[in-house]
Design brief:
single chain; alpha/beta; Ubiquitin Conjugating Enzyme; Rossmann fold; L-2-Hydroxyisocaproate Dehydrogenase, Chain A, domain 2; 3 domains; six-stranded parallel β-sheet; four-stranded antiparallel β-sheet; about 40% helix; elongated; L-lactate/malate_DH; UEVLD enzyme; Lactate_DH/Glyco_Ohase_4_C
């Protein structure tokens, strides 16, 4: 049975070979562990058959103890950490502490900072032993204490075996998190903090979770959020806190010592490999909104690392530039008629290009050419003004709040966002470019047709080519 489980994990396991290799190493190192396939029930009541193993780990705390544990392997393993529990017997009590809660769920820095390939199950178990030797997680109960705790242990056993008591939960009348608008912002840097504040200021969501993935204790902006208590904002280092989010905003960027631009992007890719499978697992119906750099590439990477349809993976793209562009046309250049259908599309940065989704019908080709030339002059003037506007954290965050508002409220509003451009403007490669799209609760509902302009199409194809060449050099 053991070898059957090791060599034939269920088809839902996306990275079978890596999972098999990990489980083989665990079996060799800890022969007492038993492996099985059982149903696990998540916080939202959803269930999934998952590989799991249980046994004891040796801990020295004055004397030698065998601490019983059980680890559940998620189907996105090894890119998402396992779910870990103590498995106490009837004569054991749980010592609630910084690494163990009252249910026996185990929390460790190793889990919070999980990142394949440096994080492994063997490494996790070794840290678990080390932390348990600092603070023993279980204690021996007297016979009377054991009797009083039997009911609690029964409940814990149900949880660790994936059998949550849904009836008792429904009787409490608690609000199901899936029934209201919840947003998770991943990354507690300047942009992540700004996104939390912008979303809170616009009252876009009922709850905002900030996933602070930085090492060590809360610091900087995330600590200040805790100190000053922004309403409906939760700060966590545990991916499970993001469960049932309607929108997950990615703001993280690697701060490694990369020397080249390609190295910088590869560092971001490596970072995302430990994030995307986890957040997509906990919020399987969410829209992923990518604000990390470079946004076109990182949106593509996010799409490749999750199992979501292309409509539910979008980048912030040129939404900020488009809103600014339309504002400049209307308020500074007094070209309100042109602004109505004006968009900035393509690639963020110097290669972005203005375009229109419709045009007035003209009598003949000469008038059409004159109208296009006039419009191009106005657009160039607007782009000159745009050059003086940087993309600061707070301005990008306001754009993120604008996009999440359209998604959560199903506004069916048009935004210029990074979306899969294959099939548009004769682009044949899988690249993400900013294009005008109608957004709703399911992400991109429809792409809005652009006016045919050979110069615009040429620029889009050029951007697609350079982005595709860059993607080909990345290790996913």
């Amino acid at each position: 049975k053991l070898f059957s489980l090791l060599f034939s994990p269920p088809s839902q396991y996306k990275f079978r070979d890596l999972t098999i290799e990990e489980l083989k190493n665990v079996s060799k190192t800890y022969p007492n562990f038993t492996f099985s396939m059982n149903t696990y029930t998540f916080k939202d009541g959803s269930q999934k058959d998952l590989l799991n193993f249980s046994g004891t780990v040796p801990v020295k705390y004055g004397n030698s103890y065998n601490i019983p544990i059980r680890l559940w392997i998620l189907d996105s393993h090894p890119f998402a950490p396992p779910i870990c529990f103590l498995k106490p017997t009837a004569n054991m009590g749980i010592s609630v502490g910084k690494h163990v809660d009252a249910r026996g769920r185990i929390y460790l820095p190793y889990l919070q900072n999980w990142s394949h390939p440096k994080s492994t199950l063997i490494g996790l178990i070794k840290e678990m032993i080390a932390k348990f030797e600092e603070e023993l997680p279980l204690y021996s109960l007297s016979s009377s204490d054991a009797a009083r705790q039997s009911e609690l242990l029964s409940y814990i056993a149900k949880i660790t075996e994936g059998e949550t008591d849904l009836k008792s939960r429904s009787k409490t009348g608690g609000k199901n998190e899936g029934c209201f608008n919840k947003i998770t912002v991943v990354g507690a840097g300047d942009l992540g903090i700004a996104c939390v504040l912008a979303v809170a200021a616009k009252h876009v969501a009922d709850k905002v979770v900030l996933l602070d993935l930085s090492e060590g204790a809360a610091k900087g902006g995330s600590m200040d959020l805790e100190i000053f208590g922004v309403p409906n904002v939760e700060i966590s280092k545990d991916f499970s806190a993001s469960a049932d989010s309607k929108v997950v905003v990615l703001t993280v960027n690697s701060l490694g010592n990369a020397q080249t631009y390609l190295d910088v992007i590869q560092s971001n890719v490596d970072l995302f490999r430990g994030i995307i499978p986890a957040v997509s697992h906990y919020s399987q119906n969410a829209v992923l909104l990518v604000a990390s750099h470079p946004v076109e590439v990182m949106t593509f990477v996010s799409w490749k690392l999750c199992s979501f349809p292309k409509s539910r993976v979008i980048g912030v793209g040129a939404n900020l530039d488009s809103e600014r562009f339309q504002y400049i046309l209307t308020n500074l250049l007094k070209a309100e008629v042109l602004a109505k259908d004006a968009w900035v599309i393509g690639e963020q940065g110097e290669d972005k290009v203005p375009s229109w989704t419709s045009s007035n019908v003209v009598a003949n080709q000469t008038e059409a050419m004159a109208a296009r030339n006039s419009r191009e002059k106005v657009a160039n003037r607007a782009l000159e003004v745009l050059k003086g506007k940087g993309q600061r954290s707070w301005s990008v965050a306001l754009s993120v709040a604008d996009l999440t508002d359209s998604i959560l409220k199903d506004k069916r509003k048009v935004h210029s966002v990074s979306t899969l451009a294959k099939g548009c403007c004769n682009i044949n490669s899988e690249v993400f470019l900013s294009l005008p799209c109608i957004l709703g609760t399911s992400g991109v509902i429809e792409m809005v047709g652009l006016e045919e302009d050979p110069r615009v199409q040429e620029k889009l194809q050029s951007s697609a080519g350079s982005i595709h060449d860059l993607q080909q050099q990345l290790k996913l």
